[in-house]
From TrEMBL:
Broad enzyme group: transferase
Enzyme Commission number(s) from the entry: 2.4.99.28
GO MF annotation, one: lipid-linked peptidoglycan transporter activity
Keyword Coiled coil (UniProt): no
Signal sequence, renumbered to the chain: none
Alphabetical UniProt keywords: Cell cycle, Cell division, Cell shape, Glycosyltransferase, Membrane, Peptidoglycan synthesis, Transferase, Transmembrane, Transmembrane helix
Protein name: Probable peptidoglycan glycosyltransferase FtsW
Amino acid sequence: MNEVAEAETVGAEVKRRVQKQLGRASTSRAGMWFWEVDRVLLLLTLFLMAIGLVAVAAASPATARRYSDATHIMAPMHYFWRQLMWVCVSVPVLVAVSMLPIKLARRLSLIGAILFTAMLFVLPLVGAEVNGAKRWIGVGISQFQPSEFLKPLFIVSTAWMLSFRARDPELPVLFVTGAMTALIGVLLMLQPDFGQTIVFALVWLILLMISGISPLAIGGLMGTAVAGVVAAYLFYGTARTRIDNFLFPTKEAALHDRYQIEMAHATLTEGGLTGTGPGGGQMKFRLPEAHTDYIFSVIGEEFGLISCAVIVLLYAAIVIRVFMRMIDEEDAFVLLAASGLAAQFGVQALINMAVNTGIAPSKGMTLPFISYGGSSMIALSIGMGLLLAFTRRNPYLKRSPYTGRWSKG
């Protein structure tokens, strides 16, 4: 009995210390972070990661069989265990980045944007070629994709430059950020990576609209975007091939892009509303890149279209949550950075799901926090960490509905 009483006393003391450490009166970094961070947004992100682990476990046997040969037989759950490792690395990264002060997060993002843009310059020389594209740089036994890491850092850097318009609307930030986006787009198309180019361009346009440029300028940019797509079709072979294979499929196209799209759609709808059950899918074994580009289709087959709808709602909830949180934000930089990161997150998810449902050509783009990939997972964790850092709120302050100023509640 004494041992039981002693154990209860120790347990109560540990609980008291944790409550003190994380309580509202705590001034420690961890305690302040716990109360300042948007815990709903954090939980939604962790929920997506958990769904991703289940989805990769479902897709892993199909991918392992596809990439096995006579000399190297992969274990059925090979990709699941590797994804679990990447999640264990990514969660601490996400939390650490979310703890950064806004000024430090901005400064590190600017430095990182310069560094990864420089990597895009040298990628044609040192990049590893996979499926005819040089998008990866090898580091030891692994590889990483510079453009994945550049996306959130580019958004924060662009938001910082556009925020100067609030002080001086005459500054040429539109031209500077446009030139920067065009440069990155050219470097991406040289890889080639048309899908990422579209993401960078779309997020830049969204940031411009949020920053408050005139409707006339928005119309001009939209026209320029249409002209850019037409020019890409006429002069950029990769874009022309993808568009032709999607809109005007031939027998040759049926063996490549069109085959992937049709198989993805067939796999997605195979399980009906409720799915075949975990491990019950068979169409996934005929699906290329089941663990990355087309994991949404694997989810549809084994867990049903209802589960796919829930995932769509989760992505929508994250984006809407951020925009609702930014409604009363007065700092132009924070407003643009958080909104841009949320927009990039939503655009990437939307493009991936559009490809899986057959309403967009193949892009080679992952589904955020669900698709397999260490480079993608860590880069997304950095982006979400920055988003959580920019949406933190001091729990001791309340905004007056009359003056709009923050004061102690």
